[in-house]
Amino acid sequence: MRIHIITLGCPKNEVDSEMMAVLLLQAGHQTVAERDRADVILVNTCGFIEPARQEAYELLDELTATRRRRQALVVAGCLAQRRCDEICQRFEVDAVIGTRAWPEIVGVVEQLAHRQRRPIRLVPEAGDLVASVQRHATRGNTAYIKIADGCDAACAYCTIPRIKGRQRSKAPDDIVREARELVAEGVLEAVLIAQDSTAYGRDLTAATNLAALLRRLNAEASGLAWQRVLYAYPNHVTPELIETMTTTPSVCHYLDIPLQHGHPDVLRRMRRPHDLQQVHGTIEALRRAMPDMALRSTFIVGFPGETECEFEGLLEFIEQVRFDKVGVFQFSAEEGTPAYDMPQQVPIELMQERYDRAMALQQRISAEINQKMVGRSLQVLVEGVGDGISVGRSYRDAPEIDGLVIIDAELEPGRMVEVEVIAADEYDLEARPR
Ligand code: SF4
Fold first, then answer.
1. Where is 60: in which H helix or E strand?
2. Mapping DSSP to helix (H, G, I), strand (E, B) and coil, where does residue 332 land?
3. Half-sphere exposure of residue 245, counting CA atoms within 13 Å on the CB side?
4. How do residues 123-179 score in pLDDT, each as one tens digit?
5. Which are the contacts of 309, defined by CB distance < 8 A and separation ≥ 6?
6. Beta bridge partners of 377
7. From ligand 1's centre to the CA of 154, what distance in Å?
8. Distance 195 CA to ligand 1 centre (A)
9. Conformational region of residue 9, where left means phi above 0, alpha means psi within -120 to 50, and beta covers everything else
10. What is d(CA 232, CA 194) in angstroms, rounded to the nearest whole number?
11. pLDDT number for residue 133
12. Which atom of ligand 1 is nearest to the CA of 159?
């Protein structure tokens, strides 16, 4: 069968989509880029926050109305896990596959050939089904490797622990084997992802942790130029991890630590680590050990009860720390989370105003930091070329999240090149080859 896959949401979903594509190809099916040519349209959804759900529902509406009569529609991912009944009632879908069930995609697609009247539902409870296949997604010379799934934290606004269950880490041997295969295929950058990458291995053995994994990948997947860690939990950044990041050549001096707020009272209500002294201490330790460290964080504005004073505390915190990159999200009340029923929900207009103020502040800071890069040399992974320029990324930029380095020369994609930065704005750098 020919399958057209549409992926919504975050890099973790990209990984699952890629793996479903691999399983389908291995089973003799074909993936096609054109929706019209497909026998099956597979939508891998995100159900994390309201705007993501809206995006998925709008797409499902469109697909229900426009797909050909014999084209099957399969919905997978977080929204499928969470809203299986609603999806089956609202849309004419042929199958719904939850977050733990994607390894079953081949069986589902093959059952569709013997079309049933009722949609196939494969939505196991969290923990029921553990994928036994490798989990990575490649994009050019970069691969995302999911090192764990699920989360043991209990942030008051987050549905992930309910959707995905407790953390389950992949065995280090499997990750190393996967990385070696990726290197053999030409991958230069491995992006390690999990809900909390810094909790990696806690559910395995006492000796298994992220630092040890990074060291093993450096030693045993030679050819991997960059290892990049996304999604660190503030108080899980250990001295051992900092030491390993500092001394392991392939580990990027880049860390994404989603902190979510900069005022202790809001953090307490969010059920997040709220000792800001400790957070400052961790950031200082990272920067002391790696002066070229690029730090990214994300913050939520408009959490229930957020006062003007608390919001200004967040701005002050952002100003003090001067992160290299920041993402800001407006609070989204998710049914079934403690924050959903909290009093003093912040009006949408006020959330938007706070979002704009936080973004404007960070844009100024990012522009100032980027401006200081002018004149410096950087290693860049070239990802695209055309019209006399090339685009790539340095260790400072995670794929699809951060900015680009635009080089005024046509260079071969997939190469690491040294460039000199000649101009900068708040997101991107301009450079010329050295
Ligand atoms: S650490 Fe992240 S995934 Fe886990 S509950 Fe908190 S926000 Fe959700």
1. helix 50-66
2. coil
3. 26
4. 655 444 333 334 556 667 999 999 999 999 999 999 888 888 899 999 999 999 999
5. none
6. 420
7. 7
8. 6
9. left
10. 9
11. 39
12. 8
Inter-residue contact 41 to 67 (CB < 8 Å): yes
**Strand duo 294-301 + 325-330: pairing:** parallel
Tell me what pLDDT residue 132 has. 36
In angstroms, the CA 185 to CA 173 distance is 19
List of domains in the chain: 2-122 (3.40.50.12160), 136-371 (3.80.30.20), 377-433 (2.40.50.140)
Q: Say how many Å lie between the CA of residue 157 and the centre of ligand 1.
A: 9
- Report, as an integer, the average pLDDT of 92-117: 78
Distance from the Cα of residue 153 to its chain's centroid: 17
Residue 12, token pair as written in the block:
């973790």
Residues with CB under 6 A from ligand 1: 151, 153, 155, 158, 160-161, 195-196, 233
What is the Å distance from ligand 1's center to 231 Cα?
10
Distance of alpha carbon 251 from alpha carbon 197, whole angstroms: 14
The more confidently predicted of residues 232 and 65 is 232
